[in-house]
Each structure stands twice: as structure tokens, then as C-alpha cells.
Design a protein that fits this description.
The structure holds two protein chains of two kinds.
Chain A (H helix, E strand, L loop, with lengths): L1 H28 L5 H85 L3 H279 L13 H25 L4 H11 L3 H7 L3 H22 L4 H17 L4 H23 L4 H17 L1
Helix pairs in contact in A: 1-2, 2-3, 3-4, 4-5, 4-7, 5-7, 7-8, 7-9
Chain B lengths: L1 H6 L8 H6 L22 H11 L12 H10 L6 H4 L6 H11 L12 H15 L8 H11 L5 E3 L18 H10 L10 H4 L7 E4 L19 H13 L5 E4 L6 H11 L7 E3 L7 H12 L5 E3 L7 H13 L5 E3 L6 H14 L5 E3 L7 H13 L5 E3 L6 H13 L6 E3 L7 H28 L1
Parallel strand pairs in B: 1-2, 2-3, 3-4, 4-5, 5-6, 6-7, 7-8, 8-9
Helix pairs in contact in B: 3-4, 6-7, 7-8, 11-12, 12-13, 13-14, 14-15, 15-16, 16-17, 17-18
Classes of the chains: A mainly alpha, B alpha/beta.
């Protein structure tokens, strides 16, 4: 059974494989150029294959069912028999149990009987008892024998049954084998038929495909032939064209070639000449260069000697230099020490200067104040004198001469008022200038500060025509000149003013061309003051003086 | 010389003498006989090879020969050469084919993996074991064979195991006391062939089929010829445990009852390679079934066949319990047991949790409608079960309707056998329709898979 099923399975498996493997190349073909036709036909054969497959499967399953029906029937019978068997065994067991119980009862009766007979003494009773016992024993034995007989009958029946079953089993096996063989035969036959049908289907497909492909092939071949002819004619035409073109080109090329050849020949000749010339020049150059080379070598020798000399000299010089450096260092040290000393001195002097400047300022201020006071005093004196004089004059005129007196002009006395604002300006200018001198440098910023009130209004206009550097120096000069004019004006302590004068001089040196104008500008104050005093002095004119002198003399005479 | 060479040819000589000797019709070659040659004096190489063939037993020279000479020698070697010589030396199947054909009539090499050598050694070993009479046959014969054939034997299908021969006691029948004391003192060392000495030496053994019976006993039938004793069982259990490559064990028709079944199962627990267990046509009952249930979950069993045993409801329940936790079993055959509705329902319940079982055979188990209801639920929910056989159970019309209901939701069962179940015609037709659709689906799926491969 197992072997049969194995071979069965292999058969079906092979069939399936065949059908599937046959199907695949068809599908691959289906991807070719003429898809629609091929797929339709593939479907046809595939349909056929599927149909056959289905048929075979149905047939196989039915056949298998038929064959295995036997086994199933046997199983059914077996299970039925088992239930019966169980039932029968149960009954038998019951029966045996009952039998055992009854016989046990009877046996007990018999044993009881034996006991009872032991009690009996008479022979008759013994005989009766014995008989009854025998009967009971016989009964018991009979029952047992019957049971045994029944059981043996049953056993025999079962043996017969067994033999029958064996026969039946043999028959069933034969039937089984028969069915298997018939199934195999029918399946083989149907497989062959189906295979034939499938082959026919494929054959048909193949033929159709083949004719279609052949037609296509013919068509393509025809097209190809036509195309080839066309191509050939085209090619011939083209060839002629190309030949003509080639001829033309050849001629052109030959002409060009000749021309270029001539050109190149001339060129070549030129170049050859050039080459020769170059060679000659080269030769000359070479000779010259050789000579130069020899010279150079000689020079080199000289140079080397000189170099050595120079080196010696250099060594010497270096020694000298070292010495000098040492000296220099010493000197430097000395100078440094000196400078340090000088710095200290300078510092001291500057401090002194500052101090002196302070003093000077103070003195200046005091002097100025004194001057002012003196001035005012003098002025007051002068005025007093003038007033006295005028009074006297008036007296004289009125008392002596009996004339009307007129007060002369006193407009010049207003000048002192104008100068006052200048003085503080000048004082502050002087301070600033002293500051500058003290620092020793004049920066633009400081200039910028003082620009406004140090320099006259005209100066910027003048400066605008000059460059900035010169402007700076000019401004410096202006500053210094202002301070200088003030210094000129005052007759105060000389040490400070000499310094100022030095710096002013230096400033003046810088700004030589502009000097006169400045001085002219600054000089106005001096001239104004002089004029003022002069005017004051001339408050009483010469005429009046003469008059007074005359009077005086007259009076003197009177006395 | 010429005659010698001619006599070894497989083709019938057609009056060669005349042909060869008559001058007018001298044939230079005879196409039917490739070995015949006009040369009356054979080549020296031929002579050497012939002497090698003759003296192969004393001096086996095979590996040193060239391919042509090797073929020549192999064709002429006698199949009756001692096996200890040829087993590991000759690997050419042609020689073994000759050996097999000479010894046995019917040789189907496809059953032995198309290897004649394997067929020869397996059948030879089976023969030795089948004719082994304990205490009479020297175990050495088996032990000597073991190293020779261990590389080639993959399956042993032993169809009989002889019991030890008891000396005829008819003369002593009158003397009952002597009989009893004799039978008492006559104790054999083993009851049947002890596989323990063999199995651990066969390193490639994968299948073992055993039947403890005597064939062709005919009218000399005695029940003790068909006894699988406890001692046998113990020896077999020990041997099975030692054989670590065994994949299939089949012990059928040997009156294996619960105790022996339990002994065997005990030694098979956690066996590394056992895949198929066949204890069919025995008398295993519920306790044995419980043991087998335990084995199901403690091994890698894929196929279990306990058809035609005595497993009843409780046994069925034990198996069902094991089944619900199992995930390796693929095929279960419980045909011709007495599971009844108790067992049937239990198995139905278990299958709702199981998703690996593919084949289930519950034919002839005296099941009826309740089992059909349980199984119809299984059919509706389970989608791994491929074939189910419920033939010869009295399911009845209602059972048939329940099954029809269950099958209508099923998409994987491709075989449903309900013959002789007293199911209605309509129900069986519906069920068959569903099965056919499922078959078609399965075929399509298979075809698609083979295409994608």
C-alpha cells in the first residue's frame, strides 16, 4: 500500500512538474515581439494543461477513494466488531461471575451438607445424605461442564469466524490489489490521452506561431531587401560624389602643397643663412667670452688677494671697532651719567624756573598792580597837577588877565580805558607762553586754545595762504611775539624775559619775513602809550608854559 | 584462452569458433561481444588482472589500479568475497548490485536511496538479526558486522525476532513437578536479540522498524513466539537511548501494553533526534497514552502513529492536553482506538490552541455528534490543519451539519474523509466542495511559489 502510494505520488509529481515546466517556456516566449498572439495561444494550451490537470486530479482522487474505501470499510467493520466484542466479553464476564457465585453457593451447600452428614449416624440417612450430596456435586459439575461446553462452542465459533475473517481479508486484499491495478491502468491511459491532447494543443500553437513567424520573417526579409537596394543605390551615388570631391581636393592639395613647399624652401634657406650667421657670431662671442673668462679668472685672483687683504683689514677694523665700541660704551655710560646729572640739574633748574616763574608772575602781577597803582597815582598826580595847572591857569586867566578860560581837550585820557582789557589778555598770553616754553614743545592743541585771543584777527587770514607746518610755526611765532612785545613793554625781571626773548628770537628766526608786520601790529600799544603820556605832558601846551613863565617872572618881580 | 574470455561475456556466443576459425569468413571483431578479440594470446595486463581477480581474497589490490583495470576487476570479482574485505574497500555500486541480485530476488533500489551497497548491508544485517537465536547464535557475528556496515546502514526493517529455543519438553510432560522445576530453572539470559550491543555502533542509523514475531510459523503457532517481554523492553529502551541518530522508531504488532510503553517512553524522553514514533497495532491503553503525551512535549516528535491500540477517553484527554501545548507535532494518527466522545471532544478543544498539526486521523474511534461539534469549531478557527480523517465514526446528520458549518469557514483543509459516518448527502457534498476549492487554492499557491523560485 505504501509502495503503491509512493509510486503514485511520483507519477503525479512528475506530471505536475512536466506541466509547469512546459508552461514556463511558453510564458517566456510570450514576452517576445508578437505578444498578443502568443499569449492568446499560450492561454489556449495552458487552458488545456489546466483542464487535463483538473481531470487527472479528479480521476486520481476518485480512484484513491475507491481504493481506500476498502480500508475504511475494514476499519468500520473492525470498530463495529470491537463494540460487539466488548459487549460479548462483558456478557461473558457477567456470566462467569454469576456462575462463580452460584457454584460458590452450591459448594457451600455441599460443604454444609458434609457437615450435616457427619452429624448423622444411621446408614440410611448417610446413604440419603451421600446421594443428595452426589446429586448436588453432579449438578455442580453439570453446570460447570455446560459452561465449559458453551465456552468451547464459542471458542470454536470464534475460530471459524477467524478463518472466515482470514479468507475475507485475503479476498479484500485481492480486491484491493485489483482496484489498485485498474486504477493505475486507467490513470496511465488517461495520462497518455491528456498528454496527447496537450501535445496536440502545443503542436497546434507551434504551427500557428511558426506560420505567423514565417510570414513575419518573409515580410521582414522583403523589407530588408528593398532597404538594401535603396541603400546600395544611395551608396553608389554618394561614392560618385565623393570621388569628384576627392579629385577636386586632390588638385587643391597639390597646388597648396607646391606653394607651401616653395615657401618653406625659401624659409629654410633663410634659416640656414641665419644659422650660419649665428654660428659666426657665436664663434666671435665665444672668443670674447674666453677672453673675458680669462680676465675674470685673473680678476678673481686679484679679488681673492684683495679679499684676504680686506679681511685682514676688516679684522683690524673690527678690533678697532671693538675698541671704539668699548670707548663708546664707556662714553655712553659717561654721557648717561652726565645726562642723568644734567637731567637732575635740569629738573632742578626747571623747578627753580617754575618757582622763579611763579615769583615772576607774582612779581609781574605785583609789578603790574604797582605799575597800575603808580600809573594811576601818576595819572592822578598828573591829573591833579593838570587840574592845578588848569586851576592856576584859570586863576591866572581870570584873576590876572581877566580872560575867559576854556577847558582844553581831555579826549586822550580815555586811552587808558582801552588799554585795560588788553592788559589782562597780554598777561594771560604771557602765562601760556611761559607754559609752552617750560614744556619745551608746542602742540597744536595748545595753539588751538590760544588761537582765538592770542593772535590778531588778521593773522588767520594771512596764515590761510601758507601751509600748515608753516602755519604752526607762524602761530608759535605769533604767540612768542605777543609775549615778546609784552616783555618789551615791561621792564621787569630779566632772567625770565631773557628766556622768553631767546625763544622769541628762535621763533622770530623761523618767521623772519612776517616779523615786521607783527612788530608793527604789536607796536601800536607802545606808540599809543607814548602818545598818551605825550598828550598828557602836552596838556599844558608850550604857549601856556611860556605865558606861565612870563607870569612867573612878573610875579617874581612883583614880590 | 580465447574460450575463457568468451565464456565470461554476457552475450550468447553465436558460433564464434566457426566464425573465428574459418579462414574465408574471419571476423576481426565481433560487435556483440566487446571482450572477444582475435588475439588468441591475451595481453599480459589481462592475465595479471585475471590473477588479481582470482587471488583477491588473499591480496586485495584495487586502489592501485588504473580506472579501466579497476572496472575490469570489479566486474569479475565474486560476490561471495568475505565482507570484512570488501566492505570498506569496494565502493562501486555495480559490484554490490551483483551481490544483491545474487542473494535476493526482488531488489528495489529506490527504497534504499539508490545505493546498492546500502541495500546489501541493510538487508544483510536485517537477515543476521532476523535469524539470530539468543543463546544459540554467537553475538560475535553481529558485532563483527557492525564496524563494516556502520557507514552504510541507515534503516533497519526487521520483520521477525526469534525467541530462544526451548528444548522439547514432551518427554517430561508426565512428570509435572519436573516440568515446573525445569521451566523454572530454564531461564534465558535474554528473551530476544538485545539491540544494545548493536545500536550504539551504528552511527548512521536513522530508522528502526521492529516486530516481535516469528514469520512463517504456520501451524507451530504458540503465543510465546509473539512475546515482547519486559526484559526485552528494558534492553530495547537502553539501546534506544544510546542511539543518538535515530529518527524513526516503529514497533508494531508486538503486544506492547501500557507498562512497556511507559518503559520505552521513559528512555525516549528528550531524545535528540527522534522525529517519528510508530507504536501502531499494539495494545497501549490510557496510561501508555499519558506517557506518550508526556513524550510529545519533551522531544521533537513530528509524526506519531498509535493506530489500532486501546486508547480510550482518558488517554485521549491526556494526548489532547499534550497537543494543546505542543508545537512540533505535524501528524497524529489515532485510528482504531476507542477515544469515544470524551477523547474526541478533548482533542477538538486542544486543536483550538494548536497551530502546527497538519494531519489528523481519527477514524474508527466510536465518536459521534459531540465530537463533530468540537471538531467543527476547530475547522472554523484552525488554519494549519491540512487533512482530517473522521471515517467510520457515527457522526450522524447533526454531526454532518456541524462539520459542514465548520468547513464553510475553513480555507486550509485539503483532505476531509467522512466516509461511513452516516452524514447527510448534502453535508458531504458541501464539505467536498469546500475541500476542492481549498485544493485548488493550494495548488495555485504552489505553482506561484515554484514560478518565483
Amino acid at each position: 500500500m505504501l509502495g503503491f502510494s509512493c509510486s503514485w505520488n511520483t507519477l503525479t509529481f512528475l506530471f505536475m512538474k512536466f506541466s509547469s515546466s512546459v508552461r514556463l517556456p511558453r510564458q517566456e516566449l510570450g514576452e517576445g515581439p508578437c505578444e498578443e498572439e502568443v499569449t492568446e495561444e499560450a492561454r489556449e494550451s495552458q487552458l488545456q494543461v489546466e483542464q487535463s490537470e483538473r481531470r487527472m486530479i479528479n480521476l486520481q482522487s476518485d480512484g484513491m477513494e475507491l481504493v481506500t474505501n476498502i480500508q475504511t470499510a475494514a476499519d468500520a467493520k473492525e470498530s463495529g466488531q470491537r463494540t460487539e466484542e466488548e459487549e460479548a466479553t462483558r456478557l461473558r464476564m457477567e456470566r462467569l461471575e454469576n456462575e462463580a457465585k452460584c457454584s460458590q453457593q452450591k459448594f457451600e451447600e455441599i460443604t454444609r451438607g458434609w457437615e450435616m452428614t457427619k452429624q448423622k449416624t444411621t446408614a440410611q440417612e448417610l446413604q440419603d445424605a451421600l446421594n443428595s450430596q452426589q446429586q448436588q456435586c453432579a449438578q455442580l459439575l453439570e453446570d460447570k461442564a455446560k459452561l465449559i461446553h458453551d465456552l468451547q462452542r464459542e471458542l470454536k465459533a470464534r475460530d471459524d469466524c477467524y478463518i472466515k475473517d482470514l479468507k475475507k481479508a485475503a479476498e479484500e486484499e485481492d480486491l484491493f490489489i485489483e482496484r489498485m491495478e485498474s486504477l493505475i491502468k486507467t490513470l496511465k491511459k488517461t495520462y497518455r490521452e491528456e498528454l496527447d491532447q496537450i501535445e496536440n494543443a502545443y503542436e497546434h500553437e507551434r504551427r500557428v506561431l511558426l506560420t505567423a513567424n514565417r510570414e513575419k520573417w518573409e515580410q521582414y526579409m522583403k523589407d530588408r531587401r528593398n532597404l538594401e537596394l535603396e541603400n546600395l543605390t544611395q551608396r553608389l551615388n554618394k561614392m560618385e560624389e565623393y570621388e569628384e570631391m576627392l579629385e577636386k581636393l586632390r588638385m587643391e592639395d597639390a597646388e597648396e602643397y607646391n606653394i607651401t613647399k616653395k615657401k618653406l624652401d625659401t624659409h629654410v634657406q633663410m634659416l640656414r643663412l641665419q644659422v650660419q650667421q649665428k654660428k659666426a657670431s657665436d664663434y666671435l662671442n665665444q672668443v670674447v667670452l674666453d677672453y673675458n673668462y680669462r680676465l675674470q679668472t685673473k680678476k678673481e685672483e686679484e679679488i681673492t688677494t684683495i679679499k684676504s687683504q680686506q679681511k685682514r683689514k676688516m679684522a683690524k677694523m673690527q678690533d678697532v671697532m671693538k675698541n671704539l665700541k668699548l670707548k663708546c660704551a664707556n662714553k655712553e655710560k659717561q654721557s648717561r651719567e652726565e645726562t642723568q646729572k644734567l637731567c637732575k640739574d635740569y629738573k632742578r633748574t626747571t623747578e627753580l624756573y617754575k618757582h622763579k616763574q611763579k615769583k615772576m608772575r607774582h612779581i609781574v602781577a605785583v609789578d603790574a598792580q604797582e605799575f597800575e597803582d603808580v600809573w594811576l597815582m601818576n595819572e592822578a598826580e598828573v591829573r591833579q597837577l593838570v587840574e592845578r595847572a588848569l586851576h592856576i591857569d584859570r586863576l591866572i586867566y581870570e584873576q590876572q588877565l581877566g580872560l575867559t578860560w576854556e577847558r582844553p581837550h581831555t579826549a586822550f585820557m580815555k586811552l587808558s580805558a582801552q588799554e585795560d582789557p588788553e592788559k589782562p589778555a597780554q598777561r594771560s598770553a604771557q602765562e601760556a607762553a611761559s607754559q609752552l616754553i617750560h614744556t619745551g614743545t608746542a602742540t597744536q592743541a595748545s595753539l588751538g586754545m590760544e588761537e582765538g585771543f592770542l593772535i590778531e584777527k588778521k593773522l588767520p587770514k594771512l596764515l590761510s595762504t601758507v601751509e600748515k607746518d608753516e602755519q604752526m610755526s607762524v602761530k608759535l611765532a605769533a604767540v612768542f611775539s605777543v609775549s615778546a612785545c609784552w616783555a618789551n613793554f615791561s621792564d621787569v625781571s630779566h632772567s625770565n624775559s631773557t628766556d622768553v626773548m631767546c625763544s622769541c628770537r628762535s621763533a622770530r628766526e623761523i618767521s623772519a619775513p612776517h616779523e615786521p608786520s607783527f612788530l608793527r601790529v604789536a607796536g601800536r600799544d607802545n606808540s599809543e602809550d607814548a602818545a598818551y603820556w605825550e598828550s598828557l605832558a602836552e596838556a599844558i601846551p608850550e604857549v601856556k608854559l611860556k605865558l606861565w613863565d612870563a607870569l612867573h617872572d612878573a610875579l617874581q618881580k612883583h614880590q | 584462452m580465447a574460450t575463457e574470455t568468451m565464456s565470461e561475456s554476457p552475450y550468447p556466443p553465436v558460433a564464434k569458433h566457426n566464425l573465428a576459425r574459418s579462414r574465408s569468413k574471419t571476423r576481426w571483431i565481433i560487435a556483440e561481444d566487446p571482450d572477444w578479440s582475435l588475439a588468441l594470446v591475451p595481453l599480459l595486463s589481462q592475465l595479471c588482472l585475471q590473477s588479481i581477480v582470482k587471488n583477491f581474497e588473499k591480496k586485495p589490490i584495487l586502489e592501485e589500479l588504473g580506472p579501466d583495470h579497476k572496472d575490469f576487476v570489479l566486474e569479475r570479482l565474486s560476490p561471495s568475497l568475505p565482507l570484512h574485505l570488501t566492505a570498506n574497500l569496494i565502493s562501486d555500486d555495480g559490484y554490490w548490485k551483483r551481490c544483491c541480485n545474487e542473494r535476493w530476488e526482488l531488489c528495489d533500489v529506490s527504497k534504499y536511496g539508490h545505493s546498492w551497497k546500502r541495500m546489501f548491508f541493510e538487508r544483510h544485517l536485517e537477515n543476521i538479526i532476523e535469524l539470530f537465536i539468543p543463546d544459540l547464535t554467537d553475538p560475535k557475528t553481529v558485532l563483527d558486522m557492525a564496524p563494516l556496515c556502520k557507514n552504510y546502514v541507515k534503516r533497519l526493517d526487521i520483520s521477525q525476532l526469534l525467541p530462544p529455543i526451548k528444548e522439547p519438553q514432551q518427554a517430561e510432560e508426565e512428570d509435572d513437578s519436573d516440568l515446573t522445576c525445569d521451566s523454572d530453572s530454564y531461564v534465558t539470559s535474554v528473551d530476544h536479540f538485545d539491540f544494545g550491543i548493536l545500536l550504539n555502533k551504528l552511527t548512521n542509523l536513522e530508522e528502526l522498524h521492529l516486530v516481535y514475531r516469528v514469520k512463517h510459523c504456520g501451524m507451530n503457532f504458540e503465543w510465546n513466539l509473539f512475546e515482547f517481554t519486559t526484559r526485552d523492553c528494558e534492553c530495547l529502551a537502553k539501546a534506544l537511548k544510546a542511539c543518538k541518530t535515530l529518527k524513526l522508531l516503529r514497533l508494531h504488532q508486538s503486544k506492547v501494553e501500557d507498562e512497556k510503553c511507559r518503559l520505552l517512553v521513559k528512555s525516549l524522553l528528550d531524545h535528540p533526534s527522534l522525529r517519528e514514533l510508530d507504536l501502531s497495532y499494539n495494545i497501549i491503553g490510557d496510561r501508555g497514552a499519558r506517557a506518550i503525551g508526556k513524550l510529545l512535549n519533551r522531544s521533537k516528535l513530528e509524526t506519531l502513529n498509535v493506530c489500532n491500540n486501546n486508547i480510550r477517553g482518558p488517554g485521549g484527554q491526556a494526548l489532547a492536553h499534550a497537543l494543546s501545548k505542543n508545537s512540533t507535532l505535524l501528524s497524529l494518527n489515532l485510528r482504531l482506538n476507542c477515544l469515544g466522545d470524551e477523547g474526541g471532544q478533548a482533542i477538538g478543544q486542544a486543536l483550538l490552541n494548536n497551530s502546527t498539526l497538519l494531519h489528523l486521523h481519527l477514524g474508527g474511534n466510536e465518536m459521534s455528534e459531540p465530537s463533530a461539534n468540537a471538531l467543527s469549531k476547530v475547522l472554523a478557527h484552525n488554519n494549519t490543519l491540512k487533512s482530517i480523517n473522521l471515517s467510520c465514526n457515527r457522526l450522524g446528520k447533526d454531526g454532518g451539519k456541524a462539520l459542514e458549518e465548520g468547513m464553510s469557514h475553513n480555507t486550509t483543509v485539503i483532505e476531509c474523509d467522512i466516509r461511513l459516518t452516516e452524514v447527510d448527502q448534502e453535508s458531504s457534498v458541501c464539505i467536498n466542495q469546500v475541500v476542492r476549492t481549498n485544493q485548488r487554492k493550494a495548488r495555485k499557491k504552489q505553482a506561484q511559489e515554484s514560478k518565483t523560485k
